[in-house]
Amino acid sequence: xxxxxxxxxxxxxxxxxxxxxxxxxxxxxxxxxxxxxxxxxxxxxxxxxxxxxxxxxxxxxxxxxxxxxxxxxxxxxxxxxxxxxxxxxxxxxxxxxxxxxxxxxxxxxxxxxxxxxxxxxxxxxxxxxxxxxxxxxxxxxxxxxxxxxxxxxxxxxxxxxxxxxxxxxxxxxxxxxxxxxxxxxxxxxxxxxxxxxxxxxxxxxxxxxxxxxxxxxxxxxxxxxxxxxxxxxxxxxxxxxxxxxxxxxxxxxxxxx
Length: 257
Fold this sequence. Notes:
The chain is an alpha/beta fold. It contains 10 helices and 15 strands. The chain has helices spanning 3-19, 24-31, 35-47, 69-74, 77-88, 103-111, 125-131, 156-162, 188-199, 238-246, and strands spanning 21-23, 52-54, 57-59, 96-99, 119-122, 138-141, 145-146, 153-154, 167-173, 176-177, 182-185, 201-207, 219-223, 229-232, 250-253.
């Protein structure tokens, strides 16, 4: 995607957040591009979960439901792979780590398969399936209820088991990051497990592609000031960058390495 497209997407998102709903015609006139271009833009933004398309225009995305896991796996896949490879360079051999539910965290697990001596604790069956075939890696799966929709293991048993460990790195994904640094998700059970991971990790690595900077799910997980480092693919909005800098939180941008 070109910088021009990214800039236009950002302006479309801004107009929709400001007004709640904007027609295709109004966006075309405001941005000085064709209706066909706006339709393509809205299709891409909708696929990324950043806006909701309606007849004749678009509005704010849902704050109560995420898009399907299978669809999320292919969204921004190249960006997620770059983020994952960058994270892998910051995790040394013979480390212990938590990995939670998410498509970006799953990409991190895949990027770590060539490491040696890693010990994983996860509530993500997709991660467990990736790791279990590697003889030099060990994986422990938490107890709990398995969700059919994404292979996540949730519930009190998962949180209790996570609390029994103290690991080097906690790798967590998130569904949205508000401008004040609040980390947000759609599912309360996922949030509780992620909070347990943060509490029991020496270093917390937050992995999030740029689309998460514009999403506003309803469940509060934590503050970005509670993580050790943010790994992303594009520079965050200025308020977030200032917050990271003020709290000495590392920022790693995959496209700048």
